[in-house]
Amino acid sequence: MPGPRLSVNINAIAALRNRRDLPWPDVVGIGRIALSAGAYGLTVHPRPDERHIRRTDVFAVRDMIRAEFPDREYNIEGYPSEDFLQLCEAAKPDQVTLVPDDPAQNTSDHGWDCAAHAAMLKGVASRMQGQGMRLSLFLDADPALVPAAAATGARRIELYTGPYGHTFDTAEKAKRLEELARTAEAATAAGLAVNAGHDLTLDNLPPLVARVPEIAEVSIGHALTADALIHGMAETIRLYRAACGDPVS
User: Fold this and answer.
1) What span, in angstroms and rounded, lies between the C-alpha atoms of 203 and 138?
2) What residues make up the domain containing 51?
């Protein structure tokens, strides 16, 4: 069975660019290198304060993918404010991933309580998917959360892998891996496809892929960008594809 497809989150590239009032590193150019090296898609997470990805980036990245890599996927993730939803409707990505972040959060650190937000999430799922965009919900590793996620009408979940990625204790890591596996199994049984993301690295990705073969896509940004400083972006994409079990020529 082939491993998950790799979507490269380019937020960290944008954050580095935004440290200075300069146009480099070029978010679109780095994204192009990643796709040319075999990444399946690109992910952006625009926030209201534009501290990394800007609204203009959302459209520039989309235009590059559509013109040069029409077989690749574009994923926009964010909190479903009305501004965010309108941005997605204007940009028309292949996938919209909803995260329950406060706008001030540094990064995502938990998944949805889909039961508590059922009405809102159902409405967003219908709205986005009615316009041809696949909806994915960021979800903690707990199989008990799956039925409420499935009831929203979303087509995918994205497993929050932070607790797995954060720990280096062998027993704790094994426990977290089993939680992810059981949640993925429950999601598949409920008719949901499974993505995964957060704090995935070249070291912890292979055990995850081996234990959770249901994962269709991984979204990786921080560690991948850090590794690209050492290996270069193209070689880093090849390393992560290999870690996903994707044959690399």
Assistant:
1) 23
2) 5-243
